[in-house]
Queue: 2 jobs
Job 1
Amino acid sequence: MADPCVSCSSMSNTNICSCPPQNGISVLQQSWQMLIDGNIVNNPCYNSVSGISTWTYKIFADYASQSPISTMLIPICANIQKASIAVEEKFDGSGRYAIIPFTLNTTDPEFGNAPPQFQWLKIDINNRYGRGVYAEYRISIEGNYPVAQQPMMVKSGENNLSFNCQPDGYKVPGCPIPDKLEVDINCDTSISNNGSSLLYDIKVQNKGASTLNNVQYQDIMSYDGNSVNLDAIKISGDTMLQAIPIAPNTAIISGIIPSIAPEQVIPVNYTIPVAALTRPGTFIFTDMVTAAVKSASASNYNTVSIEAVKLTTSQHFTIANGNEVSFYTVITSVGQSPETTINITVQIMIPSNIVVRFTDFSGCNFSFSGGDKIPLNTNITDATVNIERNGIVIPSGGGVRLSIPFLIMSASSFQSPVRITGTLLKISGTNPKQIFLPPSIPSPVSLEGQFSLRDSSAVS
């Protein structure tokens, strides 16, 4: 924006912009100017009391110029209305300014289109002066405008002249950058100890050129209130926000951001703990975040989901041909549980009155309770066998049945009947973005298989 008007202690001949003459014509802009009240101030400048910004330029055609000046074009912001502009003309030595007519157009028959976002302020000289005279043009505009750099256009005889100072150019009233807000939403889920929270990191940025005060902030969050119970929302930072539950399926976080300077980013952070999920399924949380002042507003939309899984399990033994045993673990998805991947640990207790042999590991890792690996096709007795199976995919609405086969090699006739115990020790999910509803993890179930086998019939 134009700087505030400040009185100059002395007048200087310093020019802000002055180009080499063309055809004996010069256009310049001095660092000082005279306001309508007679004060000598910086050029350009804005008077906050009157609400007027003032911009002054000089033009001169020396006696060597081929033709007198007929037209001068000054680019100004295309949004400025004619009714808010006054153009005055003064000749060196005359001592006073006179209001003169002007026109505004975005295009000109001689010079074509004005620069983007600008219009031509056109002054027709109409033979008011000739060669050897300095003419000064004082342009007063209601309101303050940012300082832009643009060339000046001059018509002299048949010559269309462009004066473009380097590196900065003539200072002209440009268009204000409109007030603009921007909202960026980043929401993530935090799963810890089989509980979940929604973590919000929202940034509200002022993308305009003016400070915005009392910015209204509002986040309307929608969710399945019939299946989701939220805990108290925790808001951090120094914003004047509060959380208001307005319905079983809607919560609002709203309040005032006191001030946002140009390009400043205001972080808004809050945590929404999910107290309980009453059923399995995929739960979607939808947020519409809006930041607004009278002159600008911005909204952004975000969705985040939490997946809740519930599984049921069962185990049983089968025996065929007298000594061929299988221990089955059945894991089934419940309700609307999404697909999940799990790891399981199964334990088989082999008593001392029986000898078994594992003939197929079935993609599992077998080890003794001490950690030593179990070899295939080896007689085992009086041992605790831990069996791990990783990467089991449980489809939504489906399930899997896992079989652990082994052979009974011998059973003591003195201690019959004998018992082998199979237990599902643990199920653990591998997806860090899923939670598991109880009682599935862990879900130990112990089943027993009775075998009345004598030595003579245990092995064929």
Job 2
Amino acid sequence: MIPAAALLALLGSLPEAAPGPAPLLPVTRGTTKSGVAVVVVAAPDSPWAVAQLHLRLDASEITPKTRSATSAWAAQLAEVGRASIGPNGTIEQRLTPESLVLSFGVEAAHVVDAIAAIDSVLRARSNRPGSPPPRPPAPLSVVDDVVDAATARALFPGEALALSTEGGVLDATTARSLGDVLNTKSDDTGTLPRLAIVVVGPGSGEALLAQVNHFLTAPIRPTLVTAQPTRRKASVTISEQEGPSSSSSLTLLIPPRHDAAELLVLAALLGGHLVRSSGAVGIVVDVTAADRRALVEAENDAVDQVRRVAAAPPPPEVVDAAREQVLAARLSSLNDPARVAHALGQAVLDGRPTRVEDEIASLQALTPTKVSLAAAALAAAAVIIVRTPGPEPTSSASP
């Protein structure tokens, strides 16, 4: 078992836990005056603070033209926020098929500047595009990955999530359309947040929440849009890129359970990693082989490994070793405010705001039987295989 003090140490600067039960993270949850979900994490001794804006991008009313301008729109919004945090602040961004995250980092004493950056972004959401930003934001490092673009195209053909977010021109019309998506609090069903704001910084959780409500006043209209896309349920979907395939990525997805602790350990046993999708969670296993025939055999072997774990629980010592490995990696990956904020914000968008704390706690109570049951569910799940060609053969120069 991991002691509470060690769990709290994942932020690197938090005070020692008081005697008795302690929360896994010093989290306070609330909403803005207009009803947007807010999560704050108190890190009173941290030299750095972060404020992040999380936005779902799976609205079915987004056209291909609008969707393709998302990257340019995100870069413009990041540049708007730059004016609030000044030259010493940092901006990071993560754009996936399902969400956009803008992360503003500042010295802890200037946490209100990071909050003000989000307020300015919300106010500028539909602005007419200006000059291209001088430099794009740095990529945001995260704890858990999501389905990549190639897998999304295979999993959700014809849906908004399958459309590219790159290469489009950001004109006044597309900026206004994307701003309208950001202007809604809820997703297409009205049950999941469209937006979430996460702040990690100094002071108590209550004080941070008060600062968010004081400095973030941009109005968000609580309107809803059309029905959420139906998820593809095909048992096996194969997508092949041009050229002789020598590697593939197998994604096995199941509906989200109470937590993904079992899948985290199962992924470690299989040599894969956890991946999340809207309404699903699963494992990605990367496979390489010398030729197509060997590649198909390797893909089948990977699926067979899942079936073997489903048929017989692994030995307790194997599960214990994998669990300790996963716990150590998970706590290490949450050692900076930006990663903590990203994990908490994505949990809010998925409708399970306490997911981060729940999964760490569940890892400590994991049994081989639970891992086997998760493997059984995964063995019957949808499998998405994306095959990619290997590198071009190089020719040796003649002497």
